[in-house]
TrEMBL record:
Organism: Sphingomonas suaedae
Gene Ontology annotations for the cellular component aspect, listed alphabetically: plasma membrane
Keyword rRNA-binding (UniProt): no
Name assigned to this protein: UPF0391 membrane protein FPZ54_11200
Record family assignment: Belongs to the UPF0391 family.
């Protein structure tokens, strides 16, 4: 997921440099959404990992 966010961010930067503002904005929005989804999933897994680790050991 972070790889896809990084790819969309690169696409947005390239399109922004080439002057495609509308498409670059959409690609940047997608990159931000994917980044925050990946961040939320990582936080959930971290919390679950800490709680399950305490229960298992």
């Amino acid at each position: 997921m972070l790889r896809a966010a990084f790819i969309f961010a690169i696409i947005a930067l390239v399109l922004g440099l080439l002057g495609f503002g509308g498409i670059a904005g959409v690609a940047w929005d997608i990159a931000k959404i994917l980044f925050f989804i990946a961040l939320a999933i990582a936080a959930v897994f971290l919390i679950l990992g800490v709680t399950i680790y305490k229960k298992v050991t």
